[in-house]
Amino acid sequence: MPSRLDPGTLYVVATPIGNLRDLSQRALEVLGSADTLFAEDTRTTRRLMTHHGLSVRLVSAHAHNEPQRARELVRRLEAGEAVAVVTDAGSPGLSDPGGRLVAAAAAAGRRVVAVPGPSALVAALSVCGLPTDAFSFAGFLPSRVGPRRRRLEELLGRGETLVFFEAPHRVRTTLKMLDALAPEARVAACREMTKKFEEVLRGRPGEVLEQLTAERERGEWTLVLSPGDATARETPPPASRGTRAKGEKRGSAGARARVRGNPVDAWIEEQVRQGTAPEEARQRAHFLYGGAKPRSKPGRRA
């Protein structure tokens, strides 16, 4: 192992979300050199350390004792220890313990260093095939049905790609809820990322729900959803001022969609502002969002 780490520094280390080989060389060096390692579950972290032939002092720091551990962490840092913090999988602080430890260290004036790596959020976004120019990460949705529905309604109103985690026993209920709230949205349901049975189910919420077998309900889920397509499909052609589309009632979904604006047009405008030719921007929008195929041809391949 290389020389010791900087004393009095907190290292925030991302660990594998499934495949143990995803631990970076830098993470290995930090974990092997730290004086103390604060871990969400010491048993899980010990298996990881044993797999890589590492041994270090472990301190349990989970959601229920993090405030107390934060005080201990600061004492260790002020004593000159180099401390690392990990969770069971992924990046500390992202819907996992670790955030209070980082806040405590920063408040005490100690240096905090990121050792980035595996993240279910980034992994799902990279393979979803949906727009990722802007997105909202919602972590875990509320467990109760009513609050979960209200949270989804609020998120869907943003008109941008959504990413959230879901537990195996709630994924079916959540997909049913999405099917009711945004039946034309596009979903990439990512299960068991980086593990042996990793897979991505794609389609509209109802279509993904049909693919959800009892076997597939096992494992952790990261759901990526693009509501832009749903809004675009529901938005009627522009009507003259003071009139409504045929059959459209006052206050209907179509009227609300027009008030909010078409997110596909907004996406195209943003691409043009960034230097993409208008024809190519429309072609990319067709690929990402679906809908009517643009008549003009792109000047070059995306």
Keywords, separated by commas or semicolons:
single chain; alpha/beta; 17% strand; Cobalt-precorrin-4 Transmethylase, domain 1; five-stranded parallel beta sheet; Methyltransferase, Cobalt-precorrin-4 Transmethylase, Domain 2; 3 domains; five-stranded mixed beta sheet
Write the layout of secondary structure elements.
Elements: E1 9-13, H1 25-33, E2 36-39, H2 42-51, E3 57-60, H3 66-78, E4 83-86, H4 99-107, E5 111-115, H5 120-127, E6 135-140, H6 145-156, E7 161-166, H7 171-181, E8 186-191, E9 199-203, H8 205-210, E10 221-226, H9 228-234, H10 253-260, H11 263-273, H12 278-289
Parallel strand pairs: 1-4, 1-5, 2-3, 2-4, 6-7
Antiparallel strand pairs: 7-10, 8-9, 8-10
Helix pairs in contact: 3-4, 6-7, 11-12
Largest sheet, in brief, is: 5 strands, parallel
Q: Would you count the extended β strands for me?
A: 10
The helical percent reads 25-40%
Strand content: 15-25%
Q: Give the radius of gyration.
A: 23 Å
Distance between the termini: 44 Å
